[in-house]
UniProtKB/TrEMBL annotation:
<dbReference type="InterPro" id="IPR002579">
    <property type="entry name" value="Met_Sox_Rdtase_MsrB_dom"/>
</dbReference>
<comment type="similarity">
    <text>Belongs to the MsrB Met sulfoxide reductase family.</text>
</comment>
<dbReference type="InterPro" id="IPR028427">
    <property type="entry name" value="Met_Sox_Rdtase_MsrB"/>
</dbReference>
<dbReference type="GO" id="GO:0006979">
    <property type="term" value="P:response to oxidative stress"/>
</dbReference>
<keyword id="KW-0479">Metal-binding</keyword>
<dbReference type="GO" id="GO:0033743">
    <property type="term" value="F:peptide-methionine (R)-S-oxide reductase activity"/>
</dbReference>
<feature type="region of interest" description="Disordered">
    <location>
        <begin position="40"/>
        <end position="69"/>
    </location>
</feature>
<keyword id="KW-0676">Redox-active center</keyword>
<keyword id="KW-0862">Zinc</keyword>
<dbReference type="InterPro" id="IPR011057">
    <property type="entry name" value="Mss4-like_sf"/>
</dbReference>
<keyword id="KW-0560">Oxidoreductase</keyword>
<feature type="compositionally biased region" description="Basic and acidic residues">
    <location>
        <begin position="60"/>
        <end position="69"/>
    </location>
</feature>
<feature type="domain" description="MsrB">
    <location>
        <begin position="68"/>
        <end position="190"/>
    </location>
</feature>
<dbReference type="GO" id="GO:0030091">
    <property type="term" value="P:protein repair"/>
</dbReference>
<dbReference type="GO" id="GO:0046872">
    <property type="term" value="F:metal ion binding"/>
</dbReference>
<comment type="function">
    <text>Catalyzes the reduction of methionine sulfoxide (MetSO) to methionine in proteins. Plays a protective role against oxidative stress by restoring activity to proteins that have been inactivated by methionine oxidation. MSRB family specifically reduces the MetSO R-enantiomer.</text>
</comment>
<dbReference type="Pfam" id="PF01641">
    <property type="entry name" value="SelR"/>
</dbReference>
Length: 190
């Protein structure tokens, strides 16, 4: 008989009653695996709507002022899929993956400045990569969407638009690689 145990912070859920007699009572129906991931993420301190960082520059819009219907009308299907449904565009297909134009990259949803072109570098991944965001305009959150492969999600700090992911294999001075979907950005040339 296989024993299945799932852990989320200090809560452990086991499929064998004799092994879980000292654990708190749980509903009889076993939740789907995705609910374990959500519980684990919440237990680790990540919330769907974290407060804005202190020192945040005044925003032009916030998540509450943008309705889903407005965004569906204003954004392309791919932009909506990436920013609101946490999708990913295919590598080497985005508008900005190979762009060298100087300027500032803004959030496609709320127009918040996110990255300066001076921090852009060629990571060879097929997505635009930056080593530093503008101020506190990009926030990070634990992403457990792929089980056993936790990643750090990059979000717009103002409207929570999904931008991409952050990795620790970037160049100096930060050592970070913000791997960002072109569909979440709008370049304003200088």
């Amino acid at each position: 008989m296989a024993i299945r145990c799932y852990a989320a912070a200090t809560v452990v859920i086991c499929s064998r009653p004799d092994l879980s007699s000292n654990l708190p009572a749980l509903p009889s129906a076993r939740p789907r695996r995705s609910s374990y991931r959500r519980a684990a993420v919440r237990a680790m301190g990540a919330t769907p709507s974290s407060p804005l960082p202190s020192g945040q520059a005044p925003a032009k819009a916030d998540k509450a002022s943008m309705s889903d219907e407005d965004l569906k009308e204003r954004l392309t299907k791919e932009q909506y899929y990436v920013t609101r449904q946490k999708g990913t565009e295919r590598a080497f297909t985005g508008e900005y993956w190979n762009t060298k134009t100087p300027g500032i990259y803004h959030c496609i949803c709320c127009d918040t400045p996110l990255f300066e072109s001076s921090t852009k570098f060629d990571s060879g991944t097929g997505w635009p990569s930056y080593y530093r965001p503008v101020g506190d305009n990009v926030k990070n959150k634990l992403d457990m969407s792929i089980i056993f492969m936790p990643r750090t999600e990059a979000l717009c700090a103002v409207c929570d638009a999904h931008l991409g992911h952050v990795f620790d294999d970037g160049p100096p001075p930060t050592g970070k690689r913000y791997c960002i979907n072109s569909a979440s950005l709008k370049l304003k040339p200088q």
